[in-house]
Amino acid sequence: MSNKGFGKFVAGAAIGVGLGFLFAPKTGEELRKVLKAKLDELINQTKEIDIEEVKKEFNQKVEEIKMELVDLDKEKALEIAKEKGNELKAKAQELVDLAKEKGTPILKKTANDVLENVIKVSKETQKKLSAEK
């Protein structure tokens, strides 16, 4: 937390405490005593704050969020790869069916080869993405 941010925090807390006392049903003298005690308490609490520890915890949380985002991206990539793999398999199967329909042995063999390679590449891609996860 920077000194400017920390100063704003302390000022905001002090203003909040002050406003709370202004609206409380007490006499002016009582309010001043309570306000002074609360301000002293606030000052003591701010002295106990370990800025380095706050920075460390903050940075740790930021890193955790980054890792979660990376995992989310990997999960999305795997899901997309599965969907695309299924789409490619379906199109390759349409190619095989067309070759069978037309009765051309050369096209049929080539279409089957395409289908087998699509399946192989799809499985390898999904396996690779799963391993990275």
Concise synopsis of the structure shown:
With 133 residues, the chain is mainly alpha-helical. It has helices at residues 3-22, 28-48, 51-102, 105-132. It has four helices and no strands.
Describe this structure in words.
The protein is mainly alpha-helical and about 130 residues long. The protein has 2 domains: about 50 residues, no CATH class; about 60 residues. The protein has 4 helices and no strands. Helix 1 packs antiparallel against helix 2 and helix 3 packs antiparallel against helix 4. The longest helix is centred in the middle third of the chain and has 52 residues. The protein is rod-shaped, with a radius of gyration of 33 Å. The model has no long low-confidence stretch (mean pLDDT about 75).
Assembly level:
single chain
End-to-end span in angstroms?
34 Å
Low-pLDDT segments: none
Radius of gyration: 33 Å
Q: How many strands?
A: 0
The proportion of residues in beta strands is under 5%
Helix coverage percent: over 70%
**Overall pLDDT:** 77
What class do helices, strands and sheet pairing give? mainly alpha
From N to C, what is the helix and strand string?
A: HHHH
What is the overall silhouette?
A: rod-shaped
State the major sheet: none
- Determine the number of helices (DSSP H or I, runs of at least 4 residues): 4
Count of domain modules: 2
List keywords for this structure.
0% strand; 91% helix; 133 residues; 2 domains; single chain
Give the SSE map.
Elements: H1 3-22, H2 28-48, H3 51-102, H4 105-132
